[in-house]
Amino acid sequence: MKEIYIETAKEGLQRQGYKLTGPRLAIIRYLAGEKGHPDIRQIFTRIRSEHPGIGIATVYRTVDLLLELGFLRAITIKKNQLRYEVNWPGDHHHHLVCKGCGRVIEFGSCNFQLISKEIEKVTRFRIEEHILEAYGLCHDCLPGKQHYSTEKM
Amino acid sequence: MKEIYIETAKEGLQRQGYKLTGPRLAIIRYLAGEKGHPDIRQIFTRIRSEHPGIGIATVYRTVDLLLELGFLRAITIKKNQLRYEVNWPGDHHHHLVCKGCGRVIEFGSCNFQLISKEIEKVTRFRIEEHILEAYGLCHDCLPGKQHYSTEKM
DNA sequence: GTCCTTGCAAAACATTTGCAGCACC
DNA sequence: GGTGCTGCAAATGTTTTGCAAGGAC
């Protein structure tokens, strides 16, 4: 799965006439193995530890490129913070975000397919993908439980 | 509807011990009448035109406050831009974002309620609200049509 | 060899903070 | 009248840009 993403992204870059450079490959490989939702700074810090000398400008440029080509997407996990996640082919993007501890849980399926045809008919819009974000409280943060965090916000 | 929002927000501020000041009211009134998805700069520019002398720091502080109190929410309409929209009570937040022209269409309902109980059971998560964003092409941007924009991105 | 890409540093832009004076309650 | 809010300006943080050198094809 991870390898497929890396290969697809590499092919995608080349097909569009972009060069396969060290920094770009390092970023793609890191993202392919990242299960969380890193922001720019996290990506930069992580890449730099394995690839010292990389500039943050390159990270910005590469992330923009991957967004443009559709290999990455931006999400708003909390209030006003931008984070990124890998755009796996055919993947859904469904998040449960806990308002208590900020933890993010992914859930696999929704029945959006069932209504998307109806929406397309009414709005004459051709839907290609979607993101569903639900907010609430995880089990540990329900009243009577202590808060703790698995993903730093 | 607009008046209800303004009154609810005013009450909410006071109930939490925040003062009803001129700048805060101006921002709430503007947001209540705004149909689009403004960013900080648009809010600031608009408020300043009717309320010269306001500082941008106040806009940041007020937007943070309204986010905190749940009267406003942040969305990621496109790639990596943060925008804000009014959190109408009981409202759904469903957007169709056109990849061609950037226009944003709201649609009224989804059947998320039907599956949210199932998700809550599996994940032991209590879901309070959700956002659904769908991306695709609007009718005008489907192949064979010309692109144009109704909301500047 | 030709372009594209990179890292660096500076510039531009965005956000936060400290503080004295003002305004709400 | 006390406390919280505001505008300003400075500080800080983030993103973009220009450019010479290096690297992919």
Quick overview:
With 153 residues, chain A is α+β, with helices and mostly antiparallel strands.
Which labels suit this protein?
homodimer; 153 residues; alpha+beta; Arc Repressor Mutant, subunit A; Dna Ligase, domain 1; two-stranded antiparallel ribbon; 5 strands; globular; disordered C terminus; DNA-binding
Summarize the topology:
Two copies of one chain form a homodimer.
Chain A: H1 2-15, H2 22-33, H3 40-50, H4 56-69, E1 72-78, E2 81-86, E3 93-98, E4 104-106, H5 112-123, E5 126-137
Helix pairs in contact in A: 1-2, 2-3, 3-4
The first copy, chain A, binds a DNA duplex (25 and 25 nucleotides) through α2 and α4.
Q: Could you please describe the fold and organization of this structure?
A:
The structure is a homodimer of 153-residue chains. Chain A has 153 residues and is α+β, with helices and mostly antiparallel strands. Chain A has five helices and five strands. The first copy, chain A, has helices at 2-15, 22-33, 40-50, 56-69, 112-123, and strands at 72-78, 81-86, 93-98, 104-106, 126-137. In chain A, β3 (93-98) and β4 form a beta hairpin. In chain A, α1 runs antiparallel to α2 and α2 (22-33) packs across α3. The two termini of chain A are 27 Å apart. Residues 146-153 of chain A have low confidence and may be disordered. Chain A binds chain B through residues 64, 67-68, 74-76, 79-80, 82, 96, 98-99, 105, 107, 110-112, 114-116, 119, 122-139, 142, and chain B through 64, 67, 74-76, 79-80, 82, 96, 98-99, 105, 107, 110-112, 114-116, 119, 122-139, 142. The structure holds a DNA duplex (25 and 25 nucleotides).
